[in-house]
Amino acid sequence: MLLALNLRGTNMRKKIALITGGNSGLGFATAKKFCDENIITYIIGRTYDKTEKAQTQLGPNARSYILDLSELEKIPSAVKQIAEEAGGIDILVNNAGINMKKNFLEVEDQEFQSIIHTNLTSVFVITREVTKVMKEQNSGSIINISSMAAKYGIPKVVAYTASKAAIEGMTRSMAVDLAPYGIRVNCVAPGFIKTKMSSKALDSDPERKNKVLNRTPMAKLGDPEDIADTVFYYASNMSKFTTGTILCVDGGNSIGF
């Protein structure tokens, strides 16, 4: 097992990670990878029971923290509390997000703004606050999660697409702004991954499932662990000279014909 250690003052401590939406799906898989690699991992979720259950499943390196990221005003104090409790923050994974499938002409202003608020604005706010901690350490790794929706046109998800395309642009901008402080910012763009949610959606729509698989050169869905391993790469010293990149983990879906 790779020990993830860092120096802070004269004391050695484990690395500290925050994962938004870490209580399910790709966030949970990433949290499991981090915990298995001996990283103290705060899983941030909105629902108490679900987040506490995830902490129990993940074991002694997991910490639960209940926070609704749409309540922007609560984010600064939450980050400060975690940093003080843990002794620092080394890794931030911006994984949480919401989606809505709806015909373009039927999307209401508030619905569009709600998705932008959660998927984009909250990412900016929590990253800004975590950066204040990382700047004092002169080190840190921030990993944003994008989507195939940022790569090509997917119908009926205009707000989600807008938010994820903006995440990729913001990744590049933040990477430039934060490099002088020793902070790296990268992005993972998952393809179609085998989760309970995606399996339910695709299994009930054979035409769409066939379209997904036919466009994917590797002709299969990815596993959540594929995303977790990639996020861990960005979080570790294996990528110490890498910043501002967007890595598709999609079996070739984004370049498939």
Automatic annotation (TrEMBL):
Family: Belongs to the short-chain dehydrogenases/reductases (SDR) family.
Protein name in UniProt: NAD(P)-dependent dehydrogenase (Short-subunit alcohol dehydrogenase family)
One MF annotation (Gene Ontology) recorded for this entry: oxidoreductase activity, acting on the CH-OH group of donors, NAD or NADP as acceptor
PROSITE patterns: ADH_SHORT
Keyword check for Ribosomal protein: no
PANTHER family linked: 3-OXOACYL-[ACYL-CARRIER-PROTEIN] REDUCTASE FABG (PTHR42760:SF115), SHORT-CHAIN DEHYDROGENASES/REDUCTASES FAMILY MEMBER (PTHR42760)
Protein keywords: Oxidoreductase
Keyword GTP-binding: no
Any Pfam family hit: adh_short_C2
InterPro entries in the cross-refs: NAD(P)-bd_dom_sf, Sc_DH/Rdtase_CS, SDR_fam
